[in-house]
Amino acid sequence: PSLVTMNNRRQVITKVKLLYILLFAAAQFALGADAVSLWYRQPAKQWVEALPVGNAHLGAMVFGGVDQDRIQFNESTVWTGGPHEYQHPAAFKVLPPIRNLLFAGKQKEAEALANESFMSVPLTQKEYQAFGDILLDFGKQQDEVTGYKRTLDLDTATASVEYTRNGVTFRRETIASYPARVIAIHLTASKPGSLNFTASLKSAHNGSTITSSANQISMAGSVADSAIRFEARLVLEQSGGKHVASEGSLQVTGANSVTLLLSGATNFKNFREVTLDPVQLNTRMLGALRGKTYEALKTAHIADHQKLFRRVSLDLGSTASSALPTDERIKAFANGGDPQLVTTLFQYGRYLMIASSRPGGQPANLQGIWNDSNRPPWGSKYTDNINTEMNYWPVEVTNLAECHEPLFDALKDLAISGGKTASEHYNSRGWVLHHNFDLWRGTAPINNANHGIWQTGGAWLSHHLWEHYLYSGDEEFLRKTAYPLMKGSATFFIDALLEDPRNGKLISGPSNSPEQGGLVLGPTMDHQIIRSLFGITAAAANILDVDSELQTRLTATRARIAPNKIGRLGQLQEWLEDVDDPKNNHRHVSHLWGVYPGADITAFGSPDLFAAARKSLEFRGDAATGWSMGWKVNLWARFLDGAHSYLILQNLVKPVTGARQQGGLYANLFDAHPPFQIDGNFGVTAGIAEMLLQSHDPNAKPLDMTAVQSGKEAFIHLLPALPPALANGKVTGLRARGSIELEMEWADGKLKKATLRAHQSKSVKIRYAGKEKTIQAQAGKTYELGPTL
């Protein structure tokens, strides 16, 4: 070939290479965007395939149908029941006989007596309910649908469906606005005048009245055998065409675009009053939106959402699997991994938290805020022997502290009802919460003595108050909110602990090790939680310079609580007696509370107990229900074993194929027990953060009242449990105890750079790869560290 021909070829090759680089960069950008989105090639057929939106008051599941669409919705106070006091009057009279029977080894007799005279009245609590459905009927059509795509954009909190039919591209967007407190559905078509459909409401409750007039539909009714009355209202605004109100529906023809606004409210005021008017509430909420365009509503919604969501970014890289629809990615995850799906799971947990728990609303329950059944699993209540707490594990470390507020508001209520339970069931001061609570703040033991009598629900939840203080350094919060509640919980146990006549140690009881073994005295989990509660309450009192006598009492009583024990198999004992079964692979790992979320047993502070706790986790095995895997991801991270932590994550990320399956993810990434429980989603988000950052173990003895425990110093462990599968990445915005914000970048499994932003002045100990460094951080300043610190 001639020289000219060769030069032309080189130019062509150069241009092709440049085009490839540009296309690859564009693809990588697109893949990066998919890290915060879920998408599918088909509508949802089941509820667990639909896409969730929520504003902490209203939640909705968007199916994305073509001929017909369903948007199932909830409101956080639509429950069965009404204001009620659950305590069993004078139940404390049978407390000594129950304890005596347990000391005598007569467990069944103790349970029988407890079931007869010590349980909640009534025996069960109330249930979270479905509210209704928005139904959109576009008519059965023969024209082929092309280009269908259903998406949930986590960054904008927008669920959308888009497809083309007969040359017209149709798009529907659904948002749940926290500022406006409504759900908005916006419909558009690429060709003017192409929108034709009927909108209607369907109630989940018999006897509801559904009427339509002008441009709105009203659905009013009540929950059966409940004090709850409700109203939902759907308002239509359109451009072009016309609509007709008829028989409880709105018929739209020839429209260019349509916006549907859904508001929903009940008469619930608080757990003791149901005096609000839902009709007035809806009128007020919708009146405030009069004259606002959908674009303005959406802009305000996105700004509000991103103010929280964009505080943390995570990039773990991508593979070819990243380009697949979300349901296909779940199936493909076991065949070589998909680090970007790990990023999506992490951010999905944060998204679900923002959507289901915001100031002014109820806490996230067993299903967050979403529920399509009036007989939901476990009542979709608040289960406090792990599930409620797990919901809130990620909020502080992933920079969503405001989302903690509904839980703190609930604790204020529970201290009131729990005070009555403490008095009637234990003849004790303070307040107590057992296995569950509901909208009406029941705190007495429910269901059955063999698992319902568990004393430390309130004590565990009190730790969330302390964690918020450690992360924020907010002394006003500690003084006004946290300390009074912590003090009340600790005061209960000062009164309720009993002396073991065999050795003089203080033990709890009657109680159980959730959810196995039946009614016992002194399970290890109880003692870990109570011992920690006494320590943090004394630390809080010391910081606030109050209650010096109580500080002394708490410290002395704490030292008398039965200690953690190492058993005959080298395991951490679950009970006072050395009876652990190494073949027991129960989903609960209750006696490992001291490892996570507690800090009673740590790698550097108590190595012998730490090794025993690891042995116990090995006995439990790697198979488990969804939420249990969420816990184990965190536990293995605390054991500084990133590979094993990731193995549990791999076990979780698999399609749900049957009710008997343990764990898995539904197509919409909802965690499966099965059935669906949202706590596993939150647990996994916390676990991924725990792989990257830990700030709980300053190498202190577990019973010491150290400066770190009191919040006067801070400790950070960088990349403590980084899995080999996540060897490259970058994270920004994570928070550490001590009010420190972190940014990190790593490659080939090694730290490249870490940036610390201090929000308070204090000494900070930093640990990475066996190296340690202490800096005297100043509030408002930034500190950069390399791999050698």
How does this structure look, described?
- This protein has 789 residues and is of the alpha+beta class.
- Helices cover 33% and strands 24% of the residues.
- It has 19 helices and 31 strands.
- Strands 1-6-7-8-9-16-13-12-11 form a nine-stranded antiparallel β-sheet.
- A hairpin with a 4-residue loop joins strand 8 and strand 9.
- Helix 13 (475-496) packs across helix 14.
- The longest helix is centred in the first third of the chain and has 32 residues, at 3-34.
- It is globular, with a radius of gyration of 28 Å.
- It starts with a helix and ends with a strand.
Low-confidence stretches: 1-10, 12-33, 700-708
* Widest beta sheet: strand line-up: 1-6-7-8-9-16-13-12-11
Distance between the termini: 59 Å
Number of helical runs?
19
Helix % is: 25-40%
Oligomer: single chain
List keywords for this structure.
seven-stranded antiparallel β-sheet, alpha+beta, 789 residues, 31 strands, nine-stranded antiparallel β-sheet, globular, 19 helices
What is this entry, summarized?
It contains 19 helices and 31 strands.
Question: Topology of this protein?
Answer:
Layout: H1 3-34, E1 37-40, E2 51-54, E3 58-62, E4 68-75, H2 95-103, H3 107-117, E5 132-137, E6 145-153, E7 158-165, E8 168-177, E9 182-189, E10 195-203, E11 209-213, E12 216-222, E13 229-239, E14 242-246, E15 249-255, E16 257-266, H4 278-287, H5 294-309, E17 313-315, H6 326-332, H7 339-356, E18 382-383, H8 387-391, H9 394-397, H10 405-426, E19 436-437, H11 449-452, H12 457-472, H13 475-496, E20 498-499, E21 506-507, E22 511-513, E23 516-520, H14 524-544, H15 548-560, H16 607-620, H17 626-638, H18 642-652, H19 679-692, E24 693-694, E25 713-718, E26 729-736, E27 740-747, E28 750-758, E29 762-768, E30 771-777, E31 782-785
Parallel strand pairs: 25-29
Antiparallel strand pairs: 1-6, 2-3, 3-4, 4-5, 5-10, 6-7, 7-8, 8-9, 9-16, 10-15, 11-12, 12-13, 13-16, 14-15, 17-26, 18-19, 20-21, 22-23, 24-25, 26-27, 27-28, 28-31, 29-30
Helix pairs in contact: 2-3, 7-19, 10-12, 10-13, 12-13, 12-14, 13-14, 14-15, 17-18, 17-19
